[in-house]
Write a structure and sequence with these properties.
The protein is mainly alpha-helical. It has one domain. Helices cover 22% and strands 5% of the residues. It is built from two helices and two strands; from the N terminus they run H-E-H-E. The protein is elongated, with a radius of gyration of 32 Å. The N and C termini lie far apart (124 Å).
């Protein structure tokens, strides 16, 4: 017996596959708000970002974290070599212009003046 539902039609199958592909592309978009940035940078003035990807600050973040947590530190068969961190230099960006700070001249109080003039 043949199927009379639209679920098994070739056009419906293509539509489902297109929907699955688009949903997968949406979920795996790497430049989303909680993933990587095009050009990662820290602000010169203001708040630091709350989330940064795991590989933004170092080339070997997994080795550094394993060393900090003491993973593989008690292995007597094949001891772990000391981890040398490979830190990345992150650029700083000025996201807005700040006005130059104008400081007043130093205030000097004269010791030889009276606090108020005396009438004569």
């Amino acid at each position: 017996m043949t199927s009379t539902r639209n679920n098994n039609a070739p056009a419906e199958y293509c539509l489902q596959q297109k929907t699955y592909t688009q949903a997968n592309e949406y979920n795996e978009y790497i430049y989303a708000c909680n993933c990587e940035a095009y050009d990662p940078a820290l602000p010169v003035l203001g708040f630091n970002p709350t989330k940064m990807p795991w590989n933004t600050f170092a080339n070997n973040p997994v080795d550094i974290e394993s060393s900090l947590f003491g993973i593989n530190s008690t292995n007597l068969v094949d001891p772990q070599k000391p981890v040398i961190p490979e830190i990345k230099k992150i650029q700083e960006k000025e996201f807005f212009k700040t006005k130059r700070l104008i400081m007043p001249e130093r205030f000097v109080v004269s010791k030889y003046n009276r606090p108020f003039p005396i009438a004569q």
